[in-house]
Amino acid sequence: MQCSLLNTERAGVNFHSVFREQSESNRRMQDHTGKRCIIAWAMYDWANSAFATTVMAGFFPVFFKEYWSAEAEISVTTFKLGAANSLASILVALSAPFLGAMADRGGVRKRFLLTFAFLGIVVTGALYFVARGEWQWAATLYVLGIIGFSGSNIFYDSLLVNVAGEDKWDLVSALGFSLGYLGGGLLFALNVLMTLRPDFFGFADTGDAVRTSFFSVAIWWAVFSIPLMLFVKEHRSVNGPGNRHIVRDGVKQVLTTIGHVRRLRIVFLFLLGYWLYIDGVDTIIRMAVDYGMSLGFDSRSLILALLITQFVGFPSAIMFGKLGEKIGAKKGVLLALAVYLGVTIYGFFMDREAEFYILAGVIGLVQGGVQSLSRSLYARIIPKNLSAEFFGFYNLLGKSAAVVGPLLMGTISMKTGNPRLSILSIGVLFVSGALILMAVNEKDGRRAAVVLENDPLFPPPMKG
To answer: Bridge partners of 462?
Structure first.
């Protein structure tokens, strides 16, 4: 049984009346299968969030500064780290819409997801073998790891419309992020213990424990990707081009979609606002530990603060999913952005490690919410039968936004010698993004998307 609701919705079938006509046993089987598919889909967030926590946010910035770039000035290592993040984001951003279009036209979103995941898993494990002082190799593997992580998320996000009905998107999207916080946080907690007590775990020193932590992320990511591989199905295009021509037709479809976005004014407004505010979110995720170290805070305290963010984020992401169902996804995102603005202002004046802990907890309250509700809001205003392609544009803007933030922080820190100015500048992105998001009308966006879905010139719907 395929894990999707698209056929019945697009064919105009009353989904609930069909259920009433089924036998009780068949209905229980359908419900069980739907739940299994949702959990299998959400488990990929559990799997790859270990990379986001242990590698991107946690140990890589510290290890890059203190081990792979030993003896270098702090401002120089901040610039190098920001440049590595920006390069990875540029590469993902340039390829995202083409990959999404190819996957939609060929019905191979899950195959693409697993290919990028494999890349991320391999290079993350390879960080174990990078020796002290070899920052070039470390940066190269890190860039490839981000490409694998971010590239797989393009197709993971697009599969949301396959595993749940529209009325459940807020909650299911939030479930994915909450499991990501929990799974990533559990492994990160173990990795932190390994670095605090390396002798207890049989490691020679802290450096050995950190390198082993990178290898543990690769194993975790691989093992917990298996449920999605086995249980989440996707639809293939009717009369689609097949695998032989998906590259050619994917490129042509991107050009067509650019024209569609011009017709979908609400989608354009959302993407513009999202591009601005998600830049601030991603920059804080990737550069928070580096910022704290620039202020002279102890790296162990900063790592523990990240654990606070993870475990506060687990229930908070679910809370924001419920909040989105009650007040709407857009209002939930705006609330989160207001909190982020306060974080950047408070971060400018912060001078004690205890304050870093406080900010970590506050960020945990809203980080998953702004990500999950943005994803579910966008899913409502795009044509469902080209979800991967439109999510390719969504990720293009999200990842290209992450080009600006880290590079901005690194440049300001190096030019002025004052890292506090770099964190304060991020607040502008939250304000401008929120102002544009306020102009997004979800109902108008959905109506326009439905019109395009029924356009005879629009690509055919998916069929199992």
So the answer is: 237
The three-state secondary structure class of 362 is helix
- Cβ atoms of 51 and 213 within 8 Å: the answer is no
d(CA 43, CA 38): 9
Taking residue 338's Cβ as centre, other Cβ atoms within 10 Å add up to: 13
* Neighbouring residues of 245: CB distance < 8 A, sequence distance ≥ 6: none
Structure tokens at 22: 């089924």
The model's pTM is 0.69
DSSP reduced 3-state for 463? strand
Report the DSSP beta bridge partners of residue 463: 236
Instruction: Give how far Cα 138 sits from Cα of 58, 69, 81, Å.
Output: 15, 10, 10
Spell out the alpha helix ranges (H) of 56-168.
Answer: 60-63, 74-106, 109-126, 135-158, 160-163
pLDDT per position as a tens digit, 275-330? 889 988 888 877 777 788 778 888 778 888 888 887 888 788 788 878 888 888 89
Which domains, ranges and CATH numbers included, belong to the chain? Answer: 30-232+243-455 (1.20.1250.20)
Q: In whole angstroms, what is the distance from residue 363 CA to residue 338 CA?
A: 11
**What burial class does residue 163 get, using C-beta atoms within 10 Å of its C-beta: 0-12 exposed, 13-18 middle, 19+ buried?**
buried
CA atoms in the 13 A half-sphere facing the CB of 186: 11
If you write DSSP's letter for every residue of 216-268 in order, what string do you get?
A: HHHHHHHHTTHHHHHH----EETT--TGGGHHHHHHHHHHHHHHHHHH-HHHH
